[in-house]
């Protein structure tokens, strides 16, 4: 297993378009987290899955954001009607219950 | 809610020297975990060191060690014999001991950019 994989690495989109990111966690990890990191800031929690269930969503996650994790495997994060303020690095992390988690390399979104 | 503060935005160290990165946090919990993560320019966040709050002994991982002061809510990272490859952003992070739901999430500071001078 090569760790947490995120795709794409970079995404440039026009304001108002929809974008979808994918995260493939470490296969035996049942927990999956999405974070958003803006320039000069630390990552901020967006949402959390345990297996296929989305158990928590941050207030940062507006109704334009939706995340899924079908069958408890990979996860997708979709942003509808993108805005310039959505420009950020989107990080995915997976973990077992007691571990600190492993991060992917992130998807950098630029909304123009 | 827990908060993590890293007040130094940048630090610089001479290769082979020692540097200490500061972090303070605020929580009402008595049991929790603290972490230091490294984020090189390649962007992947890598765990450097982890400290359980119930342990009085400071964690050590090779050249990396922490000074954990629970009463002062301080958690600094010391890097000894600094190497060029240590140059990166370093984030201090907090996690509750209660691993249910979003309590299991990490709360990060703003990070500090460490540069290493050859």
Characterization of this structure:
The complex is a heterodimer of chains A (112) and B (118). With 112 residues, chain A is an all-beta fold. Helix content of chain A is 0%, strand content 50%. In chain A, strand 7 (65-68) and strand 8 form a beta hairpin. Chain A is globular and about 40 Å long. Chain B is mainly beta and 118 residues long. Chain B contains no helices and 12 strands. Chain B has strands at residues 3-5, 10-14, 19-21, 24-26, 32-39, 46-52, 60-61, 64-69, 74-79, 88-96, 107-108, 112-117. In chain B, the strands form 3 sheets. In chain B, strands 2, 5, 6, 10, 11 and 12 form a 6-stranded mixed sheet that branches. Chain B is globular and about 45 Å long. The model of chain B has no long low-confidence stretch (mean pLDDT 93). Chains A and B meet through strand 4, strand 5 and strand 9 of A and strand 5, strand 6, strand 10 and strand 11 of B.
Topology diagram in text:
The complex is a heterodimer of chains A (112) and B (118).
Chain A: E1 5-7, E2 10-13, E3 19-24, E4 31-37, E5 44-50, E6 53-57, E7 65-68, E8 75-79, E9 88-95, E10 102-103, E11 107-111
Parallel strand pairs in A: 2-11
Antiparallel strand pairs in A: 1-3, 3-8, 4-5, 4-9, 5-6, 7-8, 9-10, 9-11
Chain B: E1 3-5, E2 10-14, E3 19-21, E4 24-26, E5 32-39, E6 46-52, E7 60-61, E8 64-69, E9 74-79, E10 88-96, E11 107-108, E12 112-117
Parallel strand pairs in B: 2-12
Antiparallel strand pairs in B: 1-4, 3-9, 5-6, 5-10, 7-8, 8-9, 10-11, 10-12
């Amino acid at each position: 297993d090569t760790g947490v994989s995120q795709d794409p690495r970079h995404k440039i989109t026009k304001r108002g378009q929809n974008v979808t990111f994918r995260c493939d966690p470490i296969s035996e990890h049942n927990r999956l987290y999405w974070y958003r990191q803006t320039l000069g800031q630390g990552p901020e929690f967006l949402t959390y899955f345990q297996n296929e269930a989305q158990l928590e969503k941050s207030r940062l996650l507006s109704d334009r954001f939706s995340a899924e994790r079908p069958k408890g495997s990979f996860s997708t994060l979709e942003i509808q009607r993108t805005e310039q303020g959505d420009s950020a690095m989107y990080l995915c992390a997976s973990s077992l219950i007691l571990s600190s988690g492993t991060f992917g390399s992130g998807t950098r979104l630029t909304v123009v | 809610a827990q908060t993590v503060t890293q007040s130094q935005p940048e630090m610089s160290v001479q290769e082979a020297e020692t540097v200490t990165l500061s972090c303070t946090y605020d929580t009402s919990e008595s049991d929790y975990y603290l972490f230091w993560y490294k984020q090189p320019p390649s962007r992947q966040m890598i765990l450097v060191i982890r400290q359980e709050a119930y342990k009085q002994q400071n964690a050590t991982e090779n050249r990396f060690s922490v000074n954990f002061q629970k009463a002062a809510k301080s958690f600094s990272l010391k890097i000894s014999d600094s190497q060029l490859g240590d140059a990166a952003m370093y984030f201090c992070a907090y996690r509750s001991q209660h691993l249910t739901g979003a309590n299991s999430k990490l709360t990060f500071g703003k990070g500090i950019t460490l540069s290493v001078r050859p």
